[in-house]
Amino acid sequence: MRVLLTGLPIRSHLVPAVVPVANALRRAGHEVAIATGGAMRGELERLGVPVLVLPDVLAPEEIHPARPAPMRGWRPEVSGPISVPLFDERMTAAFAANLLDVAKPWQPDLIVRETNEYGGFLAAEALGVELAMIDIAPLIVRLVPDLVERLNVVRAKFGLAAIESLTPAYGKLAAGLLPESWYPPVLRTPQHRYYRVPDEPGTVPELPADAPLVLMSLGSNVRMLLSAESRLLTIAVEALGALPIRAVVALGHDPAAWTGPRPANVHFASFVQQRLLLGACDAFLTHAGYSGVREALDHGVPMAALPLFADQPANAARIEELGVGVQVDAAGLTPGKLTAALKQVLEEPSYRLAARGFQRRILALPSLTRFAADLEDLR
Fold first, then answer.
1. Do 84 and 106 lie in a common domain?
2. Quick one: 143 and 8 in the same domain?
3. How many CB atoms lie within 10 A of CB 194?
4. Which string of b and e fits 342-356 if b means at least 16 CB within 10 Å?
5. pLDDT by residue (tens digit) across 80-120?
6. N or C: which end of the chain has fewer CB within 10 A?
7. Which long-range contacts (CB under 8 A, 24 or more apart) does 182-189 make?
8. Which of 220, 229, 123, 121 lies closest to 172, judged by CA?
9. pTM for this predicted structure
10. CA-to-CA distance for 53 and 51, rounded, in angstroms?
């Protein structure tokens, strides 16, 4: 079977879940490639996955090589979350057109898209091949209430009939990466089956064992999205420094360039093996990106969620609804407010118990490698 996986050229959209599916399919003897923008080509090839480059599909850093102008004045201490487009008709059309160009000679039997990427949905229908989905952002569809209408505008350009709901976009099979209970009832579909993302190999450095450990990561895009004047990272570091804990802060850049406070109990790193390190943590200070939330729940780690954009506010609200953490509003944020939220998560047992309960549900799920086997049944 020839399987073409598609995703936006963003690391968090491809590496945590799409790459494991690609590798599982390849181990099973199938021919596999990932179609995406050129920005991800090098990393995907280093991970051993063949790539079909879509020349007109750009990564966020290529669209905004410095910092998006509308976000320059954003101040987390006085403003709410960042506003970014959650669906782009031009990008979807460009993705579908490029995908058709490369897919026709490649002749896939099946296209598997990630949630945010809709060009694969259009191309599968145009080519007459089966479609499946890896659901890397379950709550995001609720944030674009006119998504069906906007998709129909793009579909018309490719000669495809209008759809009445998003059901066709899920294909024959959709892989949920958390248990069904993460999904609000309105988002639970007959196409969904639920899987556990397998652990990744690796090690982390030896860490002090004399205090609770908190990991802080606000995602790989935080530097691009925040203005140079933003105090968000400074506020977060000051909050961690005020607690009787050990903390690891993933800055997303060389720690030597960090000019903010350096509390004695805080260790700075450019990047960390987040999934591995979370297994040793007592709490996670996160922007509530879906991959980070999932990885924390994989290890039963409660969260303090500081959402910034896209589906992060919805994820943070769900974290609080399910009792696995608290959400913290970026508007009016101070070190004291964030310290209080972290203290609540660390000291109130209910958050740890709820997160551990979610961990047990995850452990009961079949591995995502089973999704690769389930795809074989679609032919």
1. yes
2. yes
3. 23
4. bbebbeeeebbebbe
5. 556 667 899 999 999 999 999 999 999 999 999 999 999 99
6. C
7. 182/138, 182/297, 182/318, 182/322, 182/358, 183/138, 184/139, 184/142, 184/318, 186/142, 187/138, 187/139, 187/141, 187/142
8. 121
9. 0.90
10. 6
